[in-house]
Design brief:
heterodimer, A: about 325 residues, two-stranded antiparallel ribbon, 14 helices, globular, B: about 280 residues, alpha/beta, Rossmann fold, four-stranded antiparallel sheet, about 30% strand
């Protein structure tokens, strides 16, 4: 346990740039862009005068009037926009950290063999299993939690910025922003989907760690080409009329999940659906959404993938034990 | 339990070559053993087997452990410097000290700090910012602060300047070595370690060709400077090697009676390097 804490710390020392600063600056960039947008709006208002008119839905209006006469339709639109901002932020952070994790896992058991520092790590009384597990734990559990925390902070700041604008123009942020954000249900949903996301990432983490531990050079090529060539070979065999793995299963459940599990998964899709509504006119149907999350956990593919992922990690330990240099 | 390391029929087969051809040796506590051999003789393979870094056939016992099983327990009492510059280049000095202090139950942080205080190494520096010599000082400070029973050094001073090399071995002798510990060294810089070794093992083509303590080595091998008129008599005693110094011939003998040799000329103790060169002749041909 004590060793595991130090091993995980070690990972964060080495990869602080990717693990923390990459999502952090992504959040900052989103905030900065929002700020620029809000400022541009303010400047526009100043040019036209705070009481200048502009058109909303074909009706000439001004901001003061608009805030004073907000109808249920507008409120609904605000709610959608807020949910959209939540989802976009989530999507961009997931993409950034997904790419970081992909390359982190590929290098995790390879880079130290290439520069021979593996000989230093192996000179310490730490088991190879603990080393490999610390890397899987970092990628599958700890980084998603950290990124979720960054996501939450960024989103709260985003809401505060918008509240400030509403307040500036005499509106009620509570009524217009916080009351419409669906903050709690959306967050609960995300937290509920997080373990599913981790279970899905386990397969990718296992595969990438295995490649990282096993190959003598070019882990990226091995990790990507083996599944893709297997898929193509499967297709050719199919052309000859021999029974094969159905390609939707092989590509969709196998290859796709093997390589992209850290980047984006069904958990995000469910959150997106909740955020935007099933179709754009309808209010979010929470019962359907929650059923979606429950279905996610009921999918055999999720659990099979997780078990295979663990087996692959065990394979990575096996290779790690045997190879001391690349 | 007397021997630190005991090997019987230690064998390692790579795809095309046999790196170790069933070697036997044993290393006692309180010794400084030099494992010396030409490139490709099997030195590194032997060390890797001892450290549990490679699979092997035969019997090997290191401090009561089979290195293939439960390496992490064995490594509590075994330290290891692979060669210069295996410390991870991204890590900071204070981080690597923290890490070793965190995972190693026998690491004495205060001791490490004392050793580091003698160097110019900054705690906030990354390893990649240090010179080669400083990296070795750092690694040595870490290793000497570990209360291990066996220290394995594989070419620890390769590429260092003379000052760092001298300092390296001096620190080891003054601040680390005692009769409880054993040090196993491989290096090509035989001259530099000759005076600190208590035992020597020669390895050639995967076999141990010589295993002895330094005192016996001095008794067994002798070098004689022979004038030209005695050359025939000297050659009759089958010297290992012959070389010329200032017009006189120097012969190296293995296990020939002192009295016989003294009749031929001045008898001297040969250097380890000369014995090595003489016994390893033809290794690369």
């Amino acid at each position: 346990m004590n060793n595991m804490i130090w091993l995980v710390k070690r990972e964060f020392w080495e990869h602080r740039g990717g693990f923390f600063w990459a999502p952090f600056w992504t959040g900052v960039a989103v905030l900065a862009l929002t700020l620029v947008g809000l400022l541009a709006g303010e400047v526009g208002l100043m040019v036209h005068g705070a009481h200048g008119t502009f058109e909303v839905n074909g009706v000439a209006s001004n901001l003061q009037d608009m805030l004073a006469h907000i109808g249920p339709q507008q409120v609904e639109q605000v709610a959608k926009a807020l949910a959209g901002s939540l989802y976009s932020l989530d999507a961009v952070l997931t993409l950034v950290i997904g790419i970081v994790l992909f390359f982190y896992l590929l290098g995790a058991l390879y880079d130290d063999r290439r520069d021979r520092s593996v000989l230093f790590w192996k000179s310490l009384p730490v088991s190879d299993a603990a080393t490999v597990i610390s890397k899987a734990l970092t990628a599958v559990v700890l980084i998603p939690l950290l990124v979720f925390a960054i996501f939450l902070c960024t989103w709260l700041l985003l809401m505060l910025m918008m509240s400030a604008v509403v307040l500036l123009h005499g509106g009620s942020p509570w009524q217009l922003i916080w009351g419409q954000s669906n903050l709690l249900p959306l967050l609960t949903l995300q937290i509920a989907a997080l373990p599913a996301h981790m279970l899905l990432a386990l397969l990718t983490a296992g595969w990438l760690l295995l490649c990282s531990a096993a190959v003598r050079s070019k882990p990226f090529l091995w990790a990507v080409l083996i599944p893709i060539l297997a898929g193509i070979a499967n297709g050719w065999i199919g052309l000859m009329g021999v029974p094969t793995v159905p390609s939707y299963l092989l590509w969709g459940e196998g290859i796709n999940r093997l390589l992209l599990g850290t980047i984006v998964g069904p958990a995000n899709t469910i959150v997106a659906e909740a955020a935007f509504g099933r179709d754009r006119g309808v209010v979010v149907d929470w019962s359907t959404t929650w059923r979606g999350v429950a279905d996610l956990y009921a999918t055999p593919g999720l659990w099979i993938g997780a078990v295979v992922g663990i087996a692959l990690i065990a394979g990575a330990v096996w290779f790690r034990r045997r190879s001391s240099e690349a | 339990m007397s021997a630190m390391i005991e090997a019987h029929g230690l064998r390692k087969q790579y795809r095309n070559t046999e790196a170790l051809r069933g070697i036997d040796f044993s290393i006692e506590p309180g010794r400084i053993v030099g494992l010396i051999g030409p490139n490709g003789a099997g030195k590194t393979t032997a060390l890797k087997a001892i450290l549990g870094l490679t699979d092997f056939q035969g019997e090997l016992n290191v401090l009561g452990h089979d290195p293939r099983i439960g390496r992490e327990h064995m490594m509590q009492e075994v330290s290891f410097i692979a060669d210069v510059a295996v410390l991870p280049r991204w890590i900071r000095v204070h981080q690597v000290v923290d890490f070793v202090a965190g995972v190693h139950p026998r690491f004495d942080r205060a001791r490490c700090e004392v050793f580091l205080a003698r160097t110019k190494i900054l705690r906030t520096a990354r390893v990649r910012e240090l010179s080669k010599g400083m990296i070795v000082q750092l690694h040595l400070a870490l290793v000497m602060a570990i209360d291990a029973r066996l220290l394995v050094l594989d070419e620890p001073t390769l590429g260092l300047d003379l000052l760092y090399r001298k300092q390296f071995y001096q620190s080891l002798l003054e601040d680390y070595f005692d009769e409880q510990r054993t040090i196993l060294i491989t290096t090509h810089q035989v001259e530099e370690i000759e005076h600190i070794l208590s035992d020597v093992m020669f390895i050639r083509d995967g076999r141990i060709t010589l295993q002895t303590d330094m005192d016996s080595l001095g008794e067994r091998y002798a070098e004689v400077m022979v004038a030209a008129e005695h050359a025939e008599a000297a050659r009759a005693l089958k010297p290992l090697s012959e070389r010329s110094v200032f017009g006189k011939s120097v012969y190296l003998f293995d296990g020939v009676e002192r009295q016989q040799l003294q009749a031929l000329g001045d008898v001297r103790r040969p250097s380890l390097a000369d014995i090595f060169v003489a016994t390893m002749q033809g290794s690369y041909t």
